[in-house]
Design a protein that fits this description.
The protein is globular and about 40 Å long. 12% of the residues are buried. It has helices at residues 6-18, 32-50, 66-81, 84-95. With 99 residues, it is mainly α.
């Protein structure tokens, strides 16, 4: 499916950010920082394929992505409340070698 139009990108991003299937293989939610980094990668990809016509999906001033921005904010707050972000930080700390 081609998703190069702004309405199409906004629609699928909103679905991705709140879809329970958009999770790790073990079923855990991605931490908010990981979702943010995925979105940054998508912005770079869109800039590469669209050039000057590219758009920033995280630009809060762009009304075309307002619904996506609200959905992403809600999911980030919910994940933080649920401890997903903290669990991710603890796991990263446990994996890093002691100095």
């Amino acid at each position: 499916r081609k998703i190069n139009s702004v309405p199409s990108v906004a629609h699928w991003l909103s679905k991705f950010s709140c879809d329970p299937e958009a999770a790790k293989v073990n079923g855990e939610r991605y931490p908010p920082k990981s979702v943010y980094l995925i979105m940054c990668g998508l912005i770079r990809y869109l800039a590469d394929i669209k050039g000057e016509e590219g758009f920033n999906i995280l630009d809060k001033r762009d009304s075309r992505f307002r619904k996506f921005g609200r959905t992403l904010d809600e999911e980030t707050k919910d994940a933080t409340k649920s401890g997903v972000a903290q669990a991710s930080k603890r796991a990263a700390k446990a994996e890093s070698p002691e100095e």
